[in-house]
């Protein structure tokens, strides 16, 4: 069995090519744009959403068929046309250039696959079935969406701030570890859900108390 390596990639300002303009190309394009990529879509037709993104300047849309040179200077390439020969050409061009390439309906022509993801601010939960069942990935993603709500986005904002505060103010590694462990309790996550405006104050007060008791 192929064992995939899960990796978080920074696509900020990376040029990425999407070939095709149907619903699948749209899904992949939206996720690339959300990751900060500079996306070029090449396709004679495009979904209304892709057209709107082009009008808003969120993507470049070249309204024509794919040409091999379209992939030049791209970090990553996705082939999402309904023409298998075009998809294969896109794959071969990308492979020659040593690029990351994904052909949406042919796992054998992918050197990476796209997982199903839940995004809550800095929290990303990704689900992959190693290509065995994208529908199962989607089902699990929907279940996770019910469990992990928007409170996790706020929680991570606070954790980022408070973790660096603890790293600066608590020299004892064991105490630091204890505090970090207690902060990720359900109690604080629940506070983020029910008391989003007051939770930061409560957390900071709690940290102060813990530090003065233990040092
Ligand atoms: C997760 C998600 C991300 C995304 O695309 O953004 C994704 N597919 C999604 C949905 C979805 N895709 C398909 C259906 C129809 C039902 C079905 O077939 O199950 C549905 C469900 C729907 O649309 O409702 C059809 C399909 N997809 C692939 C094949 C080829 C094959 O299996 O051989 C075929 C059959 C083509 C055919 O039969 O003609 C291949 C791939 N699809 C992958 C990802 C990669 C493996 C991910 C993993 O390991 O789980 C991989 C290998 C390559 C890739 O595309 O990266 C996204 C969920 C988004 C969400 O969360 O909502
Ligand atoms: N939509 C799904 O959920 C789904 C499910 C299973 C499989 N698939 C497969 O994924 C692929 C894409 O799906 P879709 O629903 O987005 O297809 P679609 O038919 O809606 O869109 C295909 C797009 O490819 C473009 N295209 C065709 N030839 C091109 C060329 N030479 N250069 C550039 N663009 C070209 C078309 O203009 C169109 O925009 C198809 O092969 C489909 O069989 C899709």
From TrEMBL:
Question: Does the keyword Oxidoreductase feature in the UniProt annotation?
Answer: yes
- InterPro entries according to UniProt: Met8-like (IPR028161), NAD(P)-bd_dom_sf (IPR036291), SirC_C (IPR042518), Sirohaem_synthase_central (IPR028281), Sirohaem_synthase_N (IPR006367)
Q: What class of enzyme is it?
A: oxidoreductase
Pfam family of this protein, just one?
NAD_binding_7
Pathway(s) where this gene product acts: Porphyrin-containing compound metabolism; siroheme biosynthesis; sirohydrochlorin from precorrin-2: step 1/1
**Siroheme synthase central domain boundaries:** 120-146
The record's NCBIfam families line, in alphabetical order, gives: cysG_Nterm (TIGR01470)
What protein name does the entry list?
precorrin-2 dehydrogenase
